[in-house]
Each structure stands twice: as C-alpha cells, then as structure tokens.
Write a structure and sequence with these properties.
single chain; about 100 residues; alpha+beta; five-stranded antiparallel beta sheet; about 40% helix; globular
C-alpha cells in the first residue's frame, strides 16, 4: 500500500493521499494534522451519497471533486476502498493512475 501512495505522491501537484474503507474506516495516508477517523467517515459519507445519487440517474459514480480556493479534494470510488487525493492537480493527470493502482 505504501508503494501505491508514494506513486500518487510523485504526481506533480499532489499534496496528500488518504485511503479509507467503504465503511469509513481509516486505512492509510500521509495527510498531517487531521483526525483520520473523522475524515474517513466524512469521505465514506460523501462517496455513499454520490453513489445513491448516481443510482437515481442509472449511472455509476467513479469520483467526486470538491473544489477549494487553492486546491481540490478528489475522492475515487475504487471497489472496497476510497482514495482521497488532495492538491492542485488536474483530474486528467491523476484519475487513470488512481483507478489502475487501487481498482
């Protein structure tokens, strides 16, 4: 798991990565000064809600992007895991790598 996270951290603009389970349990990450358990629960709720919305329109949600003033939080639905990527990076520069490493 460390190798996959390091692989993402090598992408220009990526500042942090967090892995959680679908149930909201923290698995691994490198983001400092956060409560990993609270953040993992929030990430799980966001992906779960987005998935329900996707079901309503007969589509499968693969990722959610939350835009901030200076960076983005991108959450990727990867089977039993959710991968969160924080940084100033384009979706096109990270999406395929995340889905390949964790799906």
């Amino acid at each position: 798991m460390n190798e996959e996270i390091n692989n993402l951290l090598n992408v220009k603009g990526v500042e942090g990565v967090i892995l959680t389970s679908k149930d909201g349990l923290y698995i691994k990450g490198n983001i400092n000064k956060i409560d990993e358990n609270v953040v993992s629960a929030i990430i799980s709720a966001i992906i779960g809600g987005a998935g329900e919305l996707g079901n309503m329109i007969n589509d499968n949600v693969k990722y959610v992007i939350i835009g901030g003033d200076s960076s983005k939080i991108m959450l990727f639905n990867c089977g039993e895991k959710i991968v969160g990527v924080v940084g100033n990076v384009l979706l096109e520069d990270i999406k395929d790598k995340v889905l390949t490493l964790f799906s």
